[in-house]
Amino acid sequence: MLLKNKVALVTGGGQGIGAGIAWSLVREGAKVAILDRATGPAKELVDEINSSGGTADSWQVDVTDYAALNDVVGEVDKAWGSIDVLVNNAGVVVPPGPFMDSDPADWDHILDVDFKGVLHGVKACVPRMLRSGGGAIVNIGSDSAKFGEPGIAVYAGAKGAVNSISKSLAKELAPSGIRVNVITPGIIETPMIDLARSTPDGRAMIDGTVSTIPLARMGAPREVGDVVVFLASELSSYLTGQSISVNGGMLMIG
């Protein structure tokens, strides 16, 4: 097992991509702390994982509240003895539409969760990783930050900020043995995609995007989770500051 006895923390881990990540980490032997604002799905996932022979527990927390998040990270550290892997996955999006029709209150919400939530996770976990001699941080971005997407400009901007801060943190934390990488999913079948489909503009955007994917389908959360395992494990020991697209070939650069 690639992550045997490692402690991994996944924000927004109760459903969608987060749940796929949790399962992939558990299959490779990690103990997984699932942090989510919604308690129901997270507890159901924990029960399923533990019934299957894995080890997981859930904590209710909002990643926009740094003090609360730091307290929860401390509880995980106390319960399991370390924080080895942090996956900053928590994210939100509002129904797509023209930027000029968007609500500044929605801008704040997206930036608070999708960007500042990552900062909060890093600030809470890095001191614990340092005590253990290092660790791996995997931030979940989005391919929309690489190629732009009308209708979700603020979301794409927030995810672009995740890409930028991850490179800076990778350089800053490398001497301490902490690697920082980004996964930028394309179209993955999740509740967030269902939300995007709730408007005519959203449906058109999703259907149009899927039609351009060389592998001719959406991805599954597990397919993101398996890349997280790679980036969290010693298989990627010489990778830091990288951004890996998981998108069925939709975006090819280089």
UniProtKB/TrEMBL annotation:
<dbReference type="GO" id="GO:0016616">
    <property type="term" value="F:oxidoreductase activity, acting on the CH-OH group of donors, NAD or NADP as acceptor"/>
</dbReference>
<dbReference type="InterPro" id="IPR020904">
    <property type="entry name" value="Sc_DH/Rdtase_CS"/>
</dbReference>
<keyword id="KW-0560">Oxidoreductase</keyword>
<dbReference type="Pfam" id="PF13561">
    <property type="entry name" value="adh_short_C2"/>
</dbReference>
<dbReference type="InterPro" id="IPR057326">
    <property type="entry name" value="KR_dom"/>
</dbReference>
<comment type="similarity">
    <text>Belongs to the short-chain dehydrogenases/reductases (SDR) family.</text>
</comment>
<dbReference type="InterPro" id="IPR036291">
    <property type="entry name" value="NAD(P)-bd_dom_sf"/>
</dbReference>
<dbReference type="InterPro" id="IPR002347">
    <property type="entry name" value="SDR_fam"/>
</dbReference>
<feature type="domain" description="Ketoreductase">
    <location>
        <begin position="6"/>
        <end position="190"/>
    </location>
</feature>
<protein>
    <recommendedName>
        <fullName>Ketoreductase domain-containing protein</fullName>
    </recommendedName>
</protein>
